[in-house]
Structure formats: structure tokens, C-alpha cells
Design a protein that fits this description.
This protein is an alpha+beta fold. It has helices spanning 5-18, 23-38, 49-53, 86-104, 120-128, 182-190, 226-241, 283-298, 314-326, 332-345, and strands at residues 2-3, 68-72, 76-80, 106-114, 132-138, 159-163, 171-175, 200-201, 207-208, 219-220, 268-276, 328-329. It is globular.
């Protein structure tokens, strides 16, 4: 179905108000979620709102809490999310990283006591919009196996970067360190579809294309075998070990472990970095050199039947422009989730 960006934001704000979330927090969260949808990253946008809001009634998340800076230096800080709306905490963390980078050249801010913050690429792009290089990542509950193991060992532990360009559209990459994001496997399961080889192993550690028993059995595979494993471990160190957040098997799932009054609170660790290019070289020089690199990649010899070569993020920005002009075309699973949220709250979902 098709929906205007403004209508989708309004619906999300109203749904969050139903759960007692402060108006300013609801508006910021809706803006971030819908922006993610405009990039076509539907697995991490408004589709996740219904599941996230289920964390509030039982106290796993606190609608009235606010993140707090626990400790900081000139170029770094540690924020306690206090289980507040995680999109708000992540936004505050990258905002602080950008502020510190303006003063020192680099800002590094980490977070504990938080939960699902959507797509890491949004926060990396906050830095890019300030002519800085942005990096964002977080750890998660174990859903991924590693070489030599048969079960779940590490989270999908996403990592993202964004790099400014003279075109005001960043080069950006947002990936899980697993072969795919867990939500893509769950979506295939919900739709009764098989999955490509290389995404999942069964309970014995054998590759499978059947997502039917996941996540109760089996585990996701790391991208590029040991390479994805190595990156996931780095994220676990920066977001788990370095922050004091929960790690590996001690990390509850924000979407699966929600039942009961004593359901454990997610305690994800997150890291946000901003690199101030202008503190290290004239930004105009950087823009020129990036332009040279971009032209080189675009002009590389093309494979047979290839029309063009895309840079990371280029397809997402094309989708973003189309969504702002023509409205969002939401996939069926996203519509189903949002209509379920409408039923939960008694709020009318805008017709497509």
C-alpha cells in the first residue's frame, strides 16, 4: 500500500502517545523510523514499532525515563539509557559525539541500558549531515553461529558508516555482521517462504533453507564466514565489554523475551563515533578527493548486462527521493504490523 510520509509519522506518534511516551520523544522516534522506511530498509523502520511498544507495559522500557551522561572526557562519553525510548537515547548519543568532534576532531560516545534503535545507518548519517564521517554499531542477543560452533554464539551486531559528499547525499553502508538481518529470516518465515543458502544453520549446525524452526532452533550464519565473525566480535568488544552492557548469552531479546511481569530488560550496548574531517584537512579538499573516488568507481568498466555501478547508499537515496515525492509503498508485512498496532491502540490506520 502507498502512504504519505507525513501521514505515517502522524500515525506512529499517536500510537506512541497511547503508551505514554512523551510527545517530543514520540515525534523524534517517528521521524527516525519513517526516514529508515524512505531508504527502503523496511526491516528496521516502522515495522518494528509494534514489537518495541510491547516492551513498555511490562516495564522493560520506561516511557518517562531519560538518558543520562554517566562519565565523559573531552572526546568521549558514556551514556546510561535508563531503558528510555532507545531511538531517543541513540540520537542523543550521536548528537553528543558530533559536539565533541567539533571541539576535538573526534567524538566517541557509548551507551548501555538501551534496546533496539532501528537502523544504525540513521545515526551515522547524522554525522555525515554535519560534514563528518559517522560510525554507529550495537550488540544484540545471540542469534548467530560462528565457524566451528553449532549453536548461537554472538548477536548479528550491526555496524554502519556514512561519509559526506559534495552532492549532499552520503555514501553509507548499514549491515548486520550476519549473512542477513534476523528480521529478514523472520519475515520469510511469516510469509511461508524459503530462504537462500548461506543464511541459516539448523540445530546441528548444518546449512538449511527452511526458516520454519528459527529462532527456537538453529542459528544465523556470519557474513563471509570468519570475516563476519571477526567484525561481530569487534562490535561485541566496543559495545559490550567497553560499556558494561550485557554481553552474548546474558543479553535478552528485545522482541522475543517480552512475556511476564518479570521479563528481563534488554541491556544493549551501542557506540557512536563522529570524525570531524575539517579538523584534519580542508573540507573542500576532502570533497574534491571524494568526488574523484566516486567518479572512478562510477566509471569502472561494467560487467555484461550491467547498466550502472552504485556506491553504498546510492540506491537508498534514490528510494528516499521517490518516497518524499510520491509517498511510501509499504510491503505487506509492514502494513500487517502497522494495522496490528492500530488494533492494539484503537487508532485508525491511514488508508492507502
Amino acid at each position: 500500500m502507498k502512504i504519505l510520509v507525513s501521514d505515517l509519522e502522524t500515525f506512529c506518534v499517536e500510537a506512541m502517545r497511547h503508551y505514554g511516551i512523551r510527545d517530543e520523544d514520540a515525534r523524534l522516534t517517528a521521524q527516525i523510523m519513517v526516514k529508515i522506511d524512505t531508504w527502503g530498509i523496511y526491516t528496521h523502520g516502522t515495522r518494528q514499532l509494534r514489537a518495541l511498544l510491547k516492551n513498555f507495559p511490562g516495564g522493560r522500557l520506561d516511557a518517562q525515563a531519560s538518558p543520562e551522561v554517566l562519565n565523559q572526557g573531552l572526546a568521549w562519553a558514556l551514556i546510561d539509557g535508563h531503558h528510555a525510548m532507545p531511538f531517543v537515547t541513540a540520537h542523543q548519543a550521536m548528537t553528543l559525539a558530533i559536539e565533541k568532534a567539533k571541539n576535538t576532531g573526534i567524538g566517541y560516545v557509548s551507551v548501555l541500558h538501551s534496546s533496539h534503535f532501528g537502523a544504525a545507518g540513521y545515526y551515522a548519517n547524522m554525522a555525515a549531515s554535519e560534514n563528518m564521517i559517522g560510525i554507529a554499531m550495537c550488540n544484540a542477543d545471540p542469534q548467530m553461529t560462528i565457524p566451528g560452533a553449532s549453536g548461537k554464539v554472538l548477536g548479528t551486531n550491526p555496524i554502519a558508516y556514512a561519509i559526506p559528499t559534495s552532492e549532499n547525499k552520503s555514501v553509507f553502508l548499514d549491515i548486520a555482521t550476519s549473512a542477513v538481518a534476523a528480521s529478514k529470516i523472520l519475515r520469510a518465515k511469516a510469509l511461508g517462504q524459503s530462504i537462500p543458502e548461506g543464511w541459516l544453520v539448523d540445530k546441528d549446525g548444518v546449512a538449511t533453507t527452511d526458516p520454519g524452526n528459527f529462532p527456537s532452533e538453529g542459528a544465523m550464519m556470519p557474513m563471509a564466514a570468519h570475516k563476519g565473525y571477526g567484525l561481530a566480535l569487534l562490535v561485541e568488544v566496543l559495545c559490550g565489554v567497553m560499556t558494561g552492557a550485557a554481553m552474548t548469552k546474558d543479553q535478552p531479546s528485545w522482541v522475543l523475551d517480552v512475556a511476564g511481569e518479570n521479563a528481563p530488560k534488554a541491556n544493549q550496548g551501542q557506540m557512536f563515533m563522529a570524525i570531524n574531517i575539517g579538523a584534519m584537512m580542508p573540507f573542500e579538499n576532502f570533497e574534491q578527493r571524494m568526488g574523484t573516488l566516486i567518479t572512478y568507481i562510477h566509471d569502472a568498466p561494467k560487467a555484461k548486462n550491467a547498466d550502472c555501478i552504485f556506491l553504498p547508499g546510492e540506491m537508498e537515496w534514490d528510494k528516499h527521493d521517490a518516497a518524499l515525492q510520491d509517498g511510501l509503498t509499504l510491503p505487506p508485512d509492514v502494513v500487517e504490523s502497522l494495522k496490528g498496532l492500530a488494533q492494539d491502540t484503537g487508532i485508525t490506520f491511514p488508508a492507502g
